[in-house]
Amino acid sequence: MVAKVEWGLRGVIIPLITPFNEDLTIDFAGLAELVDYYIEEIKVDGLVPCGTTGESATLSHQEHADAIRAVVQKTAGRVPVMASTGSNSTREAIELTTLAAEIGADATLQVCPYYNKPTQEGLFNHFSAIAKASGLPTVLYNIPGRTSRNIDPATIARLWREVPEIVGVKDASGDLHQAMEIYRSTDPATFQIYSGEDVMTLALLCHGAAGAIAAVGHVVGREVKAMCEAVWQGQISEAQRIHYQIMEVVDALFVETNPIPVKQALKWLGLPAGPLRPPLESLTEKGQEVLRKAMLAAGLLH
C-alpha cells in the first residue's frame, strides 16, 4: 500500500453546467454567477467544471481550459475545484490534466475511456499515467452506460493500492453490489466513493459513500446536502424522508438526456443556463410538462 496524497472531501459536489450565450459561446459572467450561487447560497462542498453536465463533449480544448480557469479563479479557494479532464486518449487526458494542475485545480475527475473499450489492464495503465503526470488527487468516473466499459472493482482497488494519487471514484454504475465491493476492498480513510447516479445517492450513502457528485444538486442541492448529513448523523428516517421528497424531481431531471432538463430547470429558476450545444436540443414540450409538474409539487416553482 503506497502513501496516499491528501484528499478526503465529503459532501455535495456540483458538476457545473456550462452556460452559453445565444451564439453558443461560453457565458463566463453566467458561469461566475453560478459559482457564487452554489458556494454562497447552496453551501456546496465542491465544484466540477467541464464534466458530462458541463457539455464537455462539445467544448474545444481551449474552451475546456478557459472554463476551468474561470471556475478556479472565481472560486478563489472557497471550496475545492475538481476539474473534469478525462478523455479516451491517454495523451489528451494527460495534457488536459497537467494544464488543470497548472491553472490551480485541486483535483481531477477522470472518466473511463469511452468508445475504444480498453481492457482492465489498459484502464489501469491509463489512469496511472494521468495521475502520475499531473500529481493531482484523482477521482475515477465510472459510468458504463455512457462509456460502454466498466471499471471493475478489482481494477479500482488495485489503482487505490498502487497509485498514490488515486483517491476516489464517482460511481454511476447503478450497481449497488459493485459499490459495496469497492468499499470493502479499499479504505474510506484514503478512498472516497461519490454517488454519480442521483437516484442511488441514499443507498450509496448508507453503504459508506462520502457524498455525491450530483447533477440534481443544481436544483435540489440543499436537500441532497441535508440527506448526506442526516445519514452521517444516524438519522436514517430523516434521510429517507428527504430522498422520497425529492425523488420525483430527481427522476424528472433525467426525463431526457442530462443536462437538457437541468438547463431548463435553471432557466425557470432564473439562473444562467442558455441554450444547449448541438447535437443536444432543448427539452421537449412533453419533457417540460414532466419537469414542471415535479418542480411545482416540490415547491420549487410557483
**How is the biggest beta sheet arranged?**
8 strands, parallel
The CATH architecture name reads Alpha-Beta Barrel
Alpha-beta classification:
alpha/beta
Identify the CATH homologous superfamily: Aldolase class I
Q: In percent, how much strand structure appears in the residues?
A: 5-15%
Number of strands: 8
Estimated helix fraction: 40-55%
What strand order characterises the main sheet? 2-1-8-7-6-5-4-3
Q: CATH topology, anyone?
A: TIM Barrel
Shape by Cα distribution: globular
Order of helices and strands: EHEHEHEHEHHEHEHEHHHH
Total of domains:
1
Average residue-wise pLDDT:
97
Structure characterization notes:
This protein is α/β, with parallel strands linked by helices. It has one domain: TIM Barrel (Alpha-Beta Barrel). Helices cover 47% and strands 11% of the residues. The protein has helices spanning 28-41, 61-75, 90-103, 120-134, 144-147, 153-162, 176-185, 201-206, 217-232, 236-252, 260-268, 285-297; strands at 11-15, 46-48, 82-84, 107-111, 138-142, 166-171, 192-195, 211-213. An 8-stranded parallel beta sheet has the order 2-1-8-7-6-5-4-3. The longest helix is centred in the last third of the chain and has 17 residues, at 236-252. The radius of gyration is 18 Å and the shape is globular.
